[in-house]
Amino acid sequence: MLNIGTVNSLTKNELKQMQLLLQKSAKIKQTNINKVFLNNTKIMPENVKCQREKFINTVTSFGMPKEVLKEIKNSKTNGELCVSIANFQENYLQKVIAPLFKNVTPKEVKSLAFEQELYKKQNFGNDCIRWLHSLFMPASKNAEVIAIEKVLCEKYGVNLALLADDLPAAQKALASVKFAKEKGIKIPEEIIVSHYTYGGGQHLRMPAKTTILLPSTLSKLLNKKNKPTFAENAKELISRWRNYCGFKSDLSTNSPVHTEMHEIMHQTHLPLLAFKNKKIPEKFMPTVRKISAYTASKPKAVHEIYTELATKNVLAKLEPDEVKLFKFLGGDV
Fold it and tell me: How, if at all, do strands 202-205 and 190-194 pair?
């Protein structure tokens, strides 16, 4: 039972309840989307099976644990393959990344050796994720999409542009890269549009390249259609949480290319656990909460808070308190 307190404040317990509610909501949405995927019971064609085996054999030869690949290997239908692609990163995190933290406490200062091992495994996982999505998304046939892929590569120096024959997503990708170029922001080496992202984007950084994984129009639609409904007391808590935090919308700007720019701006922070674990002083927490619903839901995710501020800094304008927080996190206004 959710505990509803006074209108003007939220207790620490209520804030914790809110975090759990948001986590539960995300899980329900993911489950609902997986059910949509699983409705596709068509047996995988031979060429898709060959691609799957190619992926499994290659990443296994580079040391990928078999338990991470179990879901992909056991998939028999197109729908099961879709779910296994969407869940691959979570499986990797649980089976490979999480065990690294088993014998260390959250507040413990991590050694250089630990950072190096984590960095190595994250790079390997990111490389596998970007290859997996690129293998199973359709090649573009729409002339306009093909033209945009060509412009991204030939004019803006993108090494790989796979836009999944999705014109709206392609147009946003081009607009964001054009904007980044005008602002002097580094262009990612790869841009891949995927159906298997649960509606969100992703920044996959490796030593030699950065890949931006963007949600397709279908992925965004599934995300929108499969949001869970809440009981009245949960709705009341969410409403009070919004008022308490003071954010105006889900993201820090209303730009149509906010998601794309957010993923691009992830390139501008350090790819280190030490940065992600940087402690934000309590005096900054009101600012963290009001930037956006996204940051309010992730008040300890320093890399996401930094990136939302960096994105707002180039797409709109930071408020004075946001400037102070951004500079504290290493940002340059």
Answer: unpaired
Is residue 214 within 8 A of residue 169, CB to CB? The reply is yes
Other CB atoms within a 10 A radius of the CB of residue 240 amount to: 19
Per-residue tens of pLDDT for the chain, all 333 residues: 334 334 457 888 998 899 999 999 999 999 999 999 999 999 999 999 999 999 999 999 999 999 999 999 999 999 999 999 999 999 999 999 999 999 888 777 888 999 999 999 999 999 999 999 999 988 999 999 999 999 999 999 999 999 999 999 999 999 999 999 999 999 999 999 999 999 999 999 999 999 999 999 999 999 999 988 899 999 999 999 999 999 999 999 999 999 999 999 999 999 999 999 899 999 999 999 999 999 999 999 999 999 999 999 999 999 999 999 999 999 988
Tokens of 303: 């890399």
Our CA angle for 38, 40, 42, nearest 5°, is 125
Q: State pTM to two decimals.
A: 0.93
Burial label, 271 (beta-carbon count in 10 A; 0-12, 13-18, 19+):
buried
